[in-house]
Design brief:
The protein is an alpha+beta fold. It has helices at about 5-20, 125-140, 145-150, 170-175, 180-190, 215-225, 235-240; strands at about 30, 35-40, 50, 60-65, 70-75, 75-85, 90-95, 105-110, 245, 255-260, 270-275, 285, 295-300, 310. About 25% of the residues lie in helices and about 25% in strands.
């Protein structure tokens, strides 16, 4: 064998060996960030991030620190850290907000597409229109200074209401001590009639001229609690800072969610704010439905409604 052929063969063997799994893969490793398992950066099958220098062998074998559902926050919104090699982010990656190597980045969900209210359901557009006036009449916006009330930490209002009138839902709502949930409703009620705009809404108010469904929710929650929610209904449903409550236990200000096939862990497509019940005992939601509509109150439709609401207050 000539020297040149030998050199070529040696190079090929070296390249192949770099790509082949080593016997060190799978062994336990300990890094300052935590314990993990040695893995190949070439295979990129780490469900977290790699830390070099804590596994035997060359630099392609690194300590994989598991970091499933690791939350991250960027100027463009909140998200979950994920590996860019997977390319399964339903939104966009942002570098610099997750621990570990450069391929472990913050996946910020894209805003929700316009919601589609099912035809023939408990609240088709015709039915919603027929009860909107009743819902607004019963659950009309409370006449309070929202900013002053928040600053006063939920001031008691309505002290002059006669006790015998408290059977009326509107009177009872005004007479009781306001909860943060009531204030979230109030913050959203300010924008009744504002047009639906995809990707609209942030902590300050409407953007691009309006709100979409998750934008309205994040604004109202942020206004009252100072919590910054992601601009995506699925991400809001999955957010750890929210408390899931059964539908039988919901209160005004809780967020209601709808998901395709009621697969709420992964298929949420719409969100609204629970307001209360009307005179007929029907639950009312305040939401930004879809393009061509405005922020409005409507009966809660049951098709695709998730079995739990989320309380952010």
């Amino acid at each position: 064998m000539s020297p040149s052929i030998a050199i070529i063969c040696l190079a090929l063997v070296s390249s192949a060996s770099a790509l082949m799994p080593r016997g060190d893969i799978g062994t336990v490793c300990k890094a300052p960030q935590g314990s993990g398992v040695c893995g190949s950066t070439v295979k990129a099958d780490c469900n977290g991030y790699y830390v070099p220098g804590y596994c035997p062998g060359d630099n392609t074998i690194q300590c994989c620190i598991q970091a499933k559902n690791h939350a991250c926050s960027t100027p463009d919104g909140n998200g979950i850290c994920d590996r860019t090699e997977k390319n399964d982010c339903d939104g966009f990656y942002t570098a610099g907000y997750c621990p570990g190597d450069k391929h472990f980045q913050c996946c910020v969900p894209s805003p929700d597409p316009p919601a589609v209210i099912p035809e023939g359901d408990d609240s088709t557009e015709d039915e919603v229109s027929s009860v909107d006036a009743e819902a607004a009449d019963l659950l009309e916006p409370l006449d309070i200074d929202l900013d002053a009330t928040i600053a006063a930490n939920n001031t008691i209002i309505g002290d002059d209401i006669e006790p015998e009138d408290e059977t009326d839902p509107l009177v009872a709502r005004a007479a009781k001590k306001l909860t943060r949930g009531d204030l979230i409703v109030k913050a959203a009620e300010k924008w009744l009639g504002k047009k639906y705009v995809w990707a609209g809404g942030d902590c300050s108010g409407p953007t691009h001229g309006g709100f979409d469904c998750s934008g309205l929710v994040l604004h109202a929650v942020c206004k009252v609690t100072k919590k910054h929610l992601p601009h995506n209904s699925q991400a809001q449903y999955n957010l750890k800072k929210g408390k899931h409550v059964k539908l039988s236990q919901i209160k005004p200000g809780d967020a209601l969610f709808w998901a395709t096939g009621k697969k709420c862990g992964s298929k949420v497509h719409h969100v609204g704010i629970y307001v209360g019940k009307n005179k007929k005992g029907k639950r009312i939601v305040l939401h930004a439905p879809h393009t061509g509509t405005v922020v409005k109150k409507a009966p809660v439709w049951t098709s695709e409604l998730c079995g739990s609401a989320v309380r952010f207050w």
